[in-house]
Amino acid sequence: MPKKRGQGEGSLYYSEPRQRWVAVLDLGRGPDGVRRRVKMSGKTRAEVRRKLEEAQKAATAGLTWDDQRTTVAEFCAYWLKYGIPAAVQSPNSLSNIEWAVNRHIVPRIGHRRLRELTADDVDKLMRDMASTGYSKYSMVRVHGELARILRFAERRGKVMRNVATLVDVPAGPKKRGRSLTVAQAKALLEAAGGDRLEALYVTGLLMGLRPGELLGLSWTNVDLDDGRLRVSQSLKREHNTLVVGEPKTLRSRRTLDMPDLAIDALKRHRDQQENERTDAGDTWIDTGLVFTTTLGTPIDPSNLRREFDKLTRKAGIGHWHPHELRHSAASLLSAAGVPLEQISDVLGHEGPRTTAAVYRHLVNPSVTAGKAPMDALFTASAEDGPPSLGS
Q1: Its pTM surpasses 0.85
Q2: pLDDT at 354 over 80
Q3: Residues identified as active-site
């Protein structure tokens, strides 16, 4: 009596009716108790033998026949439900993940079988995004999310290799950043004089806070006597609702000494807010925030953008975004000779690399750093003769 084949051994035979070679691989019983068998066929014995060996290898790695047919879209749906790390809890972070998966990964490569996904597929995904004008930052987010999904699949034996790690992210179009010049900054501060939100603009420009950090700033974190301000929270929009939550990163939590101009502006703003509280009476909502509406409620970021646009146009400097106050703070500090490491601390960056690459812009019409030392080296008196550059 022939020995009964065990799970994963497989069988190979020639089918006369079909005139094809056939292989059958027994994968055992699934969770539903139903026995699963995989059938493969081909014109030659060698062809089917290769298919059988591939299926056996996949089964050894933990892949089932269903796994082999699973598409990228199907696995992404599973990952969104079960695979997102528990540490990812911010609604904004979850929204960014869904954006990467549902707006880019699934529409472009979702039809591909997960186990057949190649580096070329990922490379095409990146090039398609680049050709449609997406920034390097957006492409990095999508690439990183795909790599995390495939890493999840790889650890569970669903794919043999994380092909996303083999692909570099294209450079993408660079958006040119900008900063207010000293003259523009002075024009802005002059135009802001007497404005209801003057203290917000002064604090943003002189201290480099993010718009969300400004709008989420509470009076408990402002010490006008000692001249210190602590950033510990930020105003965000989550599920179309304004909420005060954690700042962007751990390094975003910082305590800053305030310039005198900011202290004076905040003192005037405190008095103004007390008058508004009195005028509002019972309709005042006490949020404890420094910058609020005339009823004490948080200021919507979109309203801040509109008010700031009016102010910059009044100052005669054209359209600017509130976030560019932060860029300007970094650039103006750099122009004043403050080391990048210290500017990074002021802005709450992880390190000076981001400060240098993204936030620091030239605020002077020309670069003067090389003039003085070169003049000292090469401007010699007649009796000294030409400078020596070494032998």
Answers
A1: no
A2: no
A3: 210, 248, 326, 349, 359
